[in-house]
Structure formats: C-alpha cells, structure tokens
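hiii so um. not sure if this is the right channel but i have a protein structure encoded as tokens and i wanna go backwards to a sequence. like what aa goes where. can anyone help
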C-alpha cells in the first residue's frame, strides 16, 4: 500500500530541512570518530581507553575497527 501524499507547510519544511542538516553533520562527526578510533588503535591505545574517551562501549570500538571482540 503506497504512503499517503504529504506536502509540508512552511514550518514543517523548515523542521525537515533542519533534520537533514543535522543528519549530514552527524554523518561527518561519525566519519571523524571512525578515523580517530582507527588512529588510536594504530597507536596501540587499549580498546578500553579508546571506548572511555569516545564515550562508547568497547563492542562499539571493535565494530568500528571491524575486529572481533576479545
């Protein structure tokens, strides 16, 4: 079943545009975080310290690095 047609009014359009801008910023920040996580790993920083600094769980760091959890 197709979605009903939706035409946003001016306020709704502004909200949707703000969400799209935020999503682009978040994607850029995620890419920067991935690069820094990889750099920290290359420098031999323990996964637990990387996770603490990035304020994420260790499993998230392993996932970003494409490594199995130990």
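sure thing!! here u go:
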């Amino acid at each position: 079943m197709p979605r009903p047609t939706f035409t946003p009014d001016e306020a709704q359009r502004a909200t949707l545009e703000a969400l799209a801008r935020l999503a682009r910023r978040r994607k850029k920040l995620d890419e920067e975080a991935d690069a820094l996580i990889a750099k920290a790993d290359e420098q031999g920083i323990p996964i637990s310290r990387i996770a603490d600094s990035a304020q994420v769980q260790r499993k998230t760091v392993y996932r970003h690095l494409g490594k199995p959890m130990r």
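oh and The first helix runs from residue 10 to 42.
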